[in-house]
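Following up on my earlier message about S-adenosylmethionine. Here are the inputs again, as you asked, copied directly from the submission form:
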Amino acid sequence: MGNDIINENEINSLINKSTTDKEYIKSILDKSLDLKGLELNEVAILLNINDDELLEMLFENALKIKEQIYGKRLVLFAPLYISNYCSNNCLYCGFRADNDEIHRITLTIDEIKEETKSILEQGHKRVLMLMGENHKNCTFDYFIEAILAVYSVKDSKGNSIRRINLEIAPLNDEEFKRLSQIPIGTYTVFQETYHLETYKKVHPSGKKSDYYWRLSCMDRALSNGLHDVGIGALFGLYDYRFEVLALIAHSNHLDKTYGIGPHTISIPRIKPAKNAPLSQNVPYAVNDKNFKKLIAILRSAVPYTGMILSTREPAELRNELFQLGISQISAGSRTNPGGYKQGLSPTDEDSQFHLNDCRSSGEVIHDVIKSGFIPSFCTSCYRLGRVGGDFMEQAKPGLIKLFCQPNALITLKEYLIDYADQETKKIGEKLIAEELTKFENEALKRKISEILNKIENGERDIYI
Ligand code: SAM
Ligand code: SF4
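Thanks, got it. Here's what our run produced:
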């Protein structure tokens, strides 16, 4: 199965492919604007460009592509960690089993509800639930119970979490079947590194040391009833060009086999973590210039996918990266179980890793509006069953923005009324009014205006 997904020989034969023929490179960049994606050999050439003019073109195209597919919205979410027990020993992670310097905790169901309430009070409607892999201290049954508990919570405004995405260790067929019976959004697992030899070195023990079990996990997910899956690589473990080519090969495999490419691709870079040797001495650190390049290339090569940027990156850089095709962001995050309720710092030393964007959710939303993007709390696709292949049918030709853009304005309106400070309210209302004038379809414009009025009059959770 592994070789069907990632062919290392092929990737190695492409990784240094470059050309001095600028016109050819420009033709690849032009091709990406057709929204049909790029071949691996074309991606390899883009990965090896250094010319500033070409890079600028690549960056501009990435934003155009993202806006053609998804419009100007940036979807927001918050991670919710429920346990930091872990039997694996990933050398970059603060939760690794051999780290005896952190306090271990599995939240009780009541504590999970409290944590959810704190996240809701920030205005979030989507959470990403995470935990370490430890079958004794955080079982699959507990995880299922936790998901249902999160949905059951209401905050002081009467709002609830409307979509739960998951990022937990690879499951077996039976577990995926059970998961498919409860309401979840995207299931995500990062391969960390697609390079087999490196993978083995950095995952010395525990279930996670099995590269192929992890690599084949999205095949199991999609074969057992899940609709949307997310993939990613942890940048810094191996040559970023290898990881990008492999991420695209993995996407192509899923798309070809199931007709469903990855719903999202994540691009985390390794950040310092307590007592995690590899995080202090990153073997293939990716600098900002190459980071920007790889984000823009992924956007160009897999145009339909959502691209997620977390608070691992600092605020200023995040604002720049939004311009390169990012479509989903976390805000106000904590990476330790109980971190929201206890008001712990994003740099708390027991965190899974240190976060660099320490702004509150409110500050992030304010800044997103200022930079001309629309913060969105939309959960419409999943609520209306626009998932899996149906979602792809809308996303690939760029039709999904006809839903994304209106729902972004509607959910932003809810946020502004329920949670925003005066200044954010002012700039947010202005943005909504401006964006509304841009809809060419008069009937749609009227419909959105009507919904916005209903929200103003106290109705909630309306979506199209
Ligand atoms: N424990 C599960 C697993 O590993 O699949 C669930 C996900 S884990 C809680 C979330 C992700 O954090 C990992 O997949 C890894 O890529 C990332 N991570 C771990 N240590 C990190 C670090 N030092 N810096 C940045 N990201 C890190
Ligand atoms: Fe455990 Fe996940 Fe951290 Fe690895 S990355 S040690 S599996 S929590």
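One observation from looking it over: The chain has two domains: 67-385+387-393, 399-456. Hope that helps, and feel free to reply on this thread.
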